Amino acid sequence: MATSTTQAQEVVTCDFCTKPTRKSCNNCQVSLCVECVSKHVELDSLPHDIVPFKGKKVAFSECEFHPNQKSTLNCQHCDVPVCLKCILGLHNGHKVKDMPNSFHEKEKELEKETKEIESTVIPQYRKTNEETKTKIIITRAKFDELEKEKEKHRQLWHDKVDTIFNTLGFLIKSMKENHLTALISHQSKINNCIQDMIQTVQQNKIIMKSRKVTEVTNYKSNLEEYRNMPIDIDVKLPSLKTNTVQGRELSLELGEYKASLTQSTLSNLTEEVSYSSLQNLLDQVKLITVIRTGVNPLYNVACVGVDEAWVSGAENTIRRIDMHGSEWDTVTTTRKTWPNSITVTSQGELVYRDSDDRTVNIVRHGKTEKLITTPQGWHPDKLCCTKSGGILVSMYTTDFSQNKIVHYRGQTLKQEIDRNEGGKPIYKRGKCSLRVVENNNGDICASDCNAYTVVVVNKSGRVRFRYDGLPAKRKESFDPRDIVADSMSQIIVADYNNACLHILNQNGQFLKCVDSCGLNNPLGLSVDSEGRLWIGLVHSGEVKVIQYMK
């Protein structure tokens, strides 16, 4: 008997074709469609009992153990079809039931069971399957989150270790200088005394040789003074004491300095760093002065020492001014385009970029030298001099299809930062400048205004975090422009749209906004050696100098 599924219901088809069954032959036990009834009757001369399919009789099967015997009964004890001979033999004494009755009972049981499986059991399994699917998604997401959390912990430990050992290096250097200074000074005193004594001995020998009464009687003894040798310096050389509890604690001690690193939760470490940073920020910033530069529009500010800065705008002249607005020096470029980026080396030398001939130039002793020429198809943009003597140069392609940051040491390319671990671009393509600054821990912080985001990578170029301005809860969308890092490793970003500054700690946590002092359209930022912030306002041509830390 052939079957096919139509509209999720079982349809019994004719045994001679694929049409639905309408009739059945009780004698032959075959299923028939209306068209095949006549074909079946004409097959042979045997009598045929053609009835509606639902009225067909139960077909008795042949007994498995007794040939030519029909299994007209069902053994209730063994639940198998049996014939009359079986009852007299193997199934003697067993309770039996008429096969048609047994068949109809089983048929009803089968129908009931099928309905329950279809209407109840399968839906329950499907529901459980969907719930399990959801659990799988949640489990994967949770473990992905744990993986990210683990990497944040890794970076925090690295940052803490860097801070500890940087401090340790500073202390060792300071101790070395102090100890050596004291010893060299003591040595100098001893050498001077030796020279004095040699001279005295020579003079005494001359006096004794001359045997002049006056010189001998006028002689004043220095022996007591020479006997009192300068007190020797007892230099206590420090030792570095360390203790490591594997996987739990790292600690070290150098003189009065003690440091330890213990495993903790990310939130505790973050709160500790944030609290420490907030303690150093003033509740209300102080406006120190307003400098009217005469440069309008004003694009760039780069501090030199305590109270001077280079400034530039949409002209070929870069001006050096002091806090009173007095002009002390100028550098005029010969190119048609104006130098849209300036920075200052640790020696106070001016560095600027020329986009037309793809060069980065440095001004030394009043003369301009080409420092770097970027590859064909790439144009230099924003600049930052690093603490190690290198230069960070943000670059863009001629068609603005790609941005990257390149670290140069002299003319040697040391590092390119443009792709993450998955090979995707770190910085968004676009015409806006990619401003860049190096933080004290070696992080490279970029203000990517094409993506309206601050992107911070570590010294190896791996993305540490991104900041989108949302924690500051400003009215307008975040529009990051110039970016600087201060002595506390805090990151400060000029928000052009919201006339304010965002201050973050080195791990990217928002600390506060500076929105007083009338910072309309802030663009250029720089920090002087006193820790004051110089803010260039593009349309007014003013530089506002503020104090924001205690």
Any overview of this molecule?
The protein is of the alpha+beta class. The protein has 3 domains: 3-104, Classic Zinc Finger (Double Stranded RNA Binding Domain), CATH 3.30.160; 138-263; 274-549, TolB, C-terminal domain (Neuraminidase, 6 Propeller), CATH 2.120.10.30. 27% of the residues lie in helices and 35% in strands. It is built from 6 helices and 35 strands. It has a 4-stranded antiparallel sheet. It has a 4-stranded antiparallel sheet with strand order 13-14-15-16, with no helix packed on it. Strand 13 and strand 14 (308-313) form a beta hairpin. The protein is elongated.
Observed structural traits:
alpha+beta; 550 residues; Neuraminidase; single chain; disordered N terminus; 3 domains; 4-stranded antiparallel beta sheet; 6 helices; Double Stranded RNA Binding Domain
What is the structure about, briefly put?
With 550 residues, this protein is of the alpha+beta class.
Topology at a glance:
Blueprint: E1 3-6, E2 9-12, E3 23-25, E4 30-32, H1 37-41, E5 50-52, E6 73-75, E7 80-82, H2 84-88, E8 96-98, H3 99-210, H4 213-217, H5 223-227, E9 240-245, E10 249-254, E11 257-262, H6 266-279, E12 281-292, E13 298-304, E14 308-313, E15 317-322, E16 327-332, E17 342-344, E18 350-354, E19 359-364, E20 367-373, E21 378-385, E22 391-397, E23 403-409, E24 412-417, E25 434-438, E26 444-448, E27 453-457, E28 463-467, E29 480-485, E30 491-495, E31 500-504, E32 510-514, E33 522-527, E34 533-537, E35 542-549
Antiparallel strand pairs: 1-2, 3-4, 3-5, 6-7, 6-8, 9-10, 10-11, 12-35, 13-14, 14-15, 15-16, 17-18, 18-19, 19-20, 21-22, 22-23, 23-24, 25-26, 26-27, 27-28, 29-30, 30-31, 31-32, 33-34, 34-35
